[in-house]
Amino acid sequence: MVKVPKPEMEEEETLVKPVEEKLSMKIPPMVLGVYVVLIALGVGTGYLLSHVGPAAGGKPTMIKTAKTVGLSDTKTFKDSAEGVIQKGGVDGEGTHQLVREGGPSQTAFLISSVVDLDEYVGKKVRLWGETFAAKKASWLMDVGKIELLE
User: Where are the domains of the chain?
Assistant: First the structure.
């Protein structure tokens, strides 16, 4: 039997190696400070806006005098017309009609989300409202304000 010499190891290699440090992303303190300030400003702005009243304009006020009834909202109710109010619409469009000078082609058909039009049947009025597209009526208006003329 022949003996095989063992090779000499110059360097011992270990099976267990030290764990390498993981790379960590460090955020510079300046950047972290900027983020904290931005978050604080956002929270502060939200808090202030939640405690402030409604925006300019707010809710339109209701007007009720001896001659005028309705809302003071001139942005929504910007169209106006004069005539005599009569009951009845056309094919389901409008509850009342405003008979104007110039014949049937000038008649406006009316609805109102604000004013009770029945109180003005047979009376001459000036009204303000918002015009809507209609299928049958030549002119369909949502009345927001009425002024009694006679």
Answer: 62-148
Of the candidate CATH numbers 3.20.20, 1.20.950, 2.60.40, 2.40.50, the domain formed by 62-148 belongs to: 2.40.50
Predicted model pTM: 0.56
What's the CA gap between 89 and 99, in Å, rounded?
11
**Nearest-angstrom CA–CA distance, 69 and 116:** 9
Nearest Cα residue to 108 out of 75, 123, 130, 77: 130
Q: Which tokens in the block code for residue 122?
A: 């047979």
Local structure of 141: helix, strand or coil = strand
Higher pLDDT, 57 or 27: 27
